[in-house]
Amino acid sequence: MGHGCDYKCESCGYAVNFQFGGGRILHDYKKMIMDGEYGERAIEVLEEGDTGHIYASWSPYVCGSCGSYRSDAPVVIERSGKRAYTSPVKCDCGKRMRRVNESELKGELTCPKCGERMSNVGGYLWD
């Protein structure tokens, strides 16, 4: 189950959709990791043993370099209830993105195209 929301810039029309939660994610992450899709570090963590849980969950991200937004679902490997590995989220510009925090989403976001404020214009749920 998950939910989402849409933000739009009234000045230039730029819009972004954010997804949250674990819905719509049905993959064999262990196989994908061992096939090299998440790099050597993820393989090392799996091979260290005692992997309790592997999952992905949608969250909004922003690039600190170019300001672009997008939703992504990084893979997390947990061991003994703690995160042992989280796959990095990279922007199209090549820089690492950071997760948008809730306080940012409660306010208005800055449009990466024109610099004006974007507003939350709607939301939805899915299963």
Please characterize this protein's 3D structure:
It is built from three helices and ten strands; from the N terminus they run ββααββββββαββ. With 127 residues, the protein is α+β, with helices and mostly antiparallel strands. The protein has one domain. Strand 6 and strand 7 form a beta hairpin. It starts with a strand and ends with a strand. 19% of the residues are buried.
Keywords, separated by commas or semicolons:
127 residues; alpha+beta; 3-stranded antiparallel beta sheet; 10 strands; elongated; 16% helix; 4-stranded antiparallel beta sheet
Shape: elongated
What value does the average pLDDT take? 90
Q: What Rg, in angstroms, do the CA atoms define?
A: 16 Å
Strand and helix order: EEHHEEEEEEHEE
Number of helices: 3
Strand adjacency order, main sheet: 2-1-10-9
**What fraction of the residues are assigned to beta strands by DSSP?**
35-45%
Please report the distance between the alpha carbons of the first and last residues: 4 Å
- Quaternary state of the chains: single chain
Instruction: Please estimate the helix content.
Output: 10-25%
Q: Could you say how many structural domains there are in total?
A: 1
**Sheet with the most strands?**
4 strands, antiparallel
Count of strand segments: 10
Low-confidence stretches: none
Class from helix and strand fractions: alpha+beta
Quick structural summary:
16% of the residues lie in helices and 42% in strands. With 127 residues, it is α+β, with helices and mostly antiparallel strands.
